[in-house]
Amino acid sequence: MEDEWWKGTGQTDLNESVPKSVKIPTSTKNTLEGGVNPISQTFSTDIWGDVGRDQSSGLANIGWFLVGIIGMPVVLFSISLALPSPDYNWSSFDSDTYEDIGEIRIDGEVLNLYSLNTQPAFEYAHDDYDYWQVNVDSSNWYGEMSSDEPSYCCLFDENEEYTWFEPAFVYFFSDEFEGTTVLWSFDQDRMLIATEAEVDYLFLSHYGEDYGSEILPILTCLMWPLVAVGGIVWGFMTKRRAFAYGIISFVGIAIAGAFLLFMLFASMF
Q1: How far apart are CA 202 and CA 204, in angstroms?
Q2: Is 205 exposed, middle or buried (0-12, 13-18, 19+ CB in 10 A)?
Q3: Residues 112 and 140 both lie in one domain
């Protein structure tokens, strides 16, 4: 009768797993033969005792996650602060010192002529900036011109002594003066104003600014997303997924914080 499957095989496996006994004869002519079952034990230790592989791997993942969510932003922020800021050159001044110097005929029209004191060589220096703006305020109107909206050229007086411009923008304070003529001209260190209506108040203000190099601010702005994307890709490619997840978590927190700030400011208005 054949052995049942739960009997015979079990005994055979057990016998095979037991090391065979070896008889060592007294004669030295015989050679010792046989096998010894190896005993293997894998473990790691530290000052606290044995540390399992899973525990060690978990600590490493936590470390990489903290590097991604805290370490990388701190390094980028430090680099951003260390980069030199662009050198912005700007200048501003104002003047309310003026005088009525009579009348002048321009394009067949007789206009009242006023002189406003400005800076030395203002005729050539007022537009010597990347951005500049000249504003003139009077008792009847307000006018301005800038590098973005220059004055409209050109008219000449009857003696062709000055070149006259129409302001890029003029706002009249009442319908009484709406559409009246307002012309400007520059003469060395003064600004000439020719108007159809008389004024009893003039105030000039000027602002100029040089932008400086924009390369460093652009590189600083690009550095953050490029390093973040590169860090995420590197983390997944090198099996350091915890580092990639740390960066992703930081980006998510930053976006959520920006959204909450936007909603907070929006709710204030």
Answers
A1: 7
A2: middle
A3: yes
| pTM exceeds cut of 0.85 | no
Whether 175 and 96 map to the same domain: the answer is yes
pLDDT given for residue 28 in this prediction: 52
Evaluate whether 227 touches 244 at the Cβ level (below 8 Å). Answer: no
Shared-domain flag, residues 217 and 206 = no
Give the β-pairing of 45-46 and 163-166.
Answer: unpaired
Tokens of residue 182, six digits: 């307002």
- pLDDT beyond 70 at 146: yes
What does the DSSP 8-state code read for residue 71?
I
Q: Tell me, yes or no, whether 233 and 156 share the same domain.
A: no
Contact yes or no for 133/207 (Cβ under 8 A)? yes
As a whole-number percent, the residues of the chain with pLDDT over 90 amount to: 29
Q: Which residue has the tokens 């009997």?
A: 7
Residues 149 and 236 in one domain: no
Percentage of the chain exceeding pLDDT 70? 76
Instruction: Indicate the pairing of strand 169-172 with strand 141-146.
Output: antiparallel
- Compute the distance between CA of residue 264 and CA of residue 12 in angstroms, rounded to an integer: 77
- Label residue 59 by pLDDT band (50, 70, 90): low
Q: How confident is the model at residue 24 (pLDDT cuts 50, 70, 90)?
A: low
Domain extent, residue 69, equals 54-86+213-264
Q: Which long-range contacts (CB under 8 A, 24 or more apart) does 247-256 make?
A: 247/68, 247/69, 247/72, 248/68, 249/65, 249/68, 249/69, 250/68, 250/69, 250/70, 250/72, 250/73, 253/69
Q: Residue 114 pLDDT > 90, yes or no?
A: yes
Contact 220, 85 (CB under 8 A): no
Provide the mean pLDDT of the chain: 79
54: tokens are: 């899973």
Q: Identify the residue whose tokens are 């220059």.
A: 150
Same domain, 206 and 229: no
